[in-house]
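[step 3/7] fold_predict: job queued, chain A
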Amino acid sequence: MNKPIIFVTATNTDIGKTYTMKQLIKELSDQGHRVGIIKPIETGVEEIPVDAYELFEYAKSFNEDLDELTLEDVCPYQFKLPAAPYVAKQHEDIEIDIIKMALEKIQNHCDIILMEGAGGIFVPICEGFFMIDLIER
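[step 4/7] structure written:
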């Protein structure tokens, strides 16, 4: 990955992750950066991933290159159960390579990527793999 990534995360729902991301999108865009976003995993999804949708639409208002992407590109994993990804995924696998491929696709449309986590840094994604491990990769 050759584009800088800023990772935003916090423990709990409605704690301010999406708000913070939107502030960063605006500030970085105002500084002349083409900002891309990714929310690799969203839980509590009924019909659409609400946070990812809100961020994607907001980012597109500053960076029209993002119009070439889809909501699934910026939010590859969407689960109905509002829980930690490891629990919400139930029997589905979360493949880190899928997230990596999404990042590679997004980086072609921006100068910097903002990534919103799902919960805090020690939230489990898979057995033995936590949000902090995703940040490291």
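[step 5/7] annotate
Residues 17-30 form the longest helix (14 residues).
The beta strands are 5-8, 35-38, 41-43, 77-79, 112-116, 124-126, 129-130.
exit 0
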